[in-house]
Design goal:
The chain has 82 residues and is an alpha+beta fold. It is 62% helix and 16% strand. The protein contains 2 helices and 2 strands. It has helices at 23-41, 49-80, and strands at residues 5-10, 13-19. Helix 1 packs antiparallel against helix 2 (49-80). The two termini are 34 Å apart.
Length: 82
């Protein structure tokens, strides 16, 4: 899954680019986070526990960044029209 970047225009004026729909990416992140939680709960994770925890943190950070990005982008698009 890749991020989609869309051209943002108001009327006929180009205003730049915005991040496209992120639902598919967020869904993939959530699925992978659930897989990592299952791995972390396994009794066989011992040798890999540090890596699993590191990936859990990375996926969580990416999810938070996407969430904040979408909020800021929505507010920017609203204020841009004022």
């Amino acid at each position: 899954t890749e991020f989609e970047v869309l051209k943002y225009t108001q009327g006929e004026v180009d205003k730049g680019f915005v991040l496209g729909p992120t639902e598919e990416i967020v869904l993939s992140l959530d699925d992978n986070a659930m897989n990592l939680q299952s791995m972390a709960a396994s009794r066989f994770v011992g040798p890999f526990l540090d890596q699993v925890q590191l990936w859990e943190k990375k996926l969580s950070l990416v999810g938070e960044v996407i969430e904040v990005w979408v909020v800021v982008q929505r507010k920017w698009m609203y204020l841009e029209s004022i």
